[in-house]
Specification:
Layout: E1 11-13, E2 23-33, E3 40-50, E4 54-56, H1 58-66, H2 75-90, E5 94-104, E6 107-116
């Protein structure tokens, strides 16, 4: 196999750092292990962010997600770890990571974690008549 799971997130320069814009990334194939039973957990991970100087390279993000496949972790911990790792790599103006975990024992779990740069305010939305 030519690629392997990796915790290393690669970045590239934001081509338009003077503008606030949102990047939305979604993967419906996130897997990890239940820390209690060792059984697989499945989730959709959604990332919405306003980049500053860096953007995440998608192949490295895919390999990063793959690195969780054999790790156990509670949904809350994993969602916050993903946010912390991405913030450390990118230092975005704003980032929201949403973990939408499939049913486990009849219970669905959605975890939302956010980061905002100090003093950053979102632009006011334009309302058209």
């Amino acid at each position: 196999m030519s690629t392997q799971p990796s915790k290393q997130l690669e970045t590239f320069d934001n081509a338009t750092p003077e503008r606030d814009y949102t990047i939305h990334i979604e993967t419906p194939e996130f897997t990890c292990l239940c820390p209690k039973t060792g059984q697989p957990d499945f989730a959709t991970i959604k990332i919405d962010y306003v980049p500053d100087l860096k953007c995440v390279e998608l192949k490295s993000l895919k390999l990063y997600f793959w690195s969780f496949r054999d790790e156990g972790g509670f949904h809350e911990k994993l969602t916050n770890q993903i946010l912390s790792d991405l913030v450390a790599a990118l230092n975005p103006r704003f980032m929201r990571v949403t973990g939408i975990f499939n049913v486990r024992g009849g219970v669905y779990t959605n975890v939302v974690a956010e980061h905002r740069q100090k003093d950053w305010l979102p632009p006011q939305p334009v309302v058209l008549p």
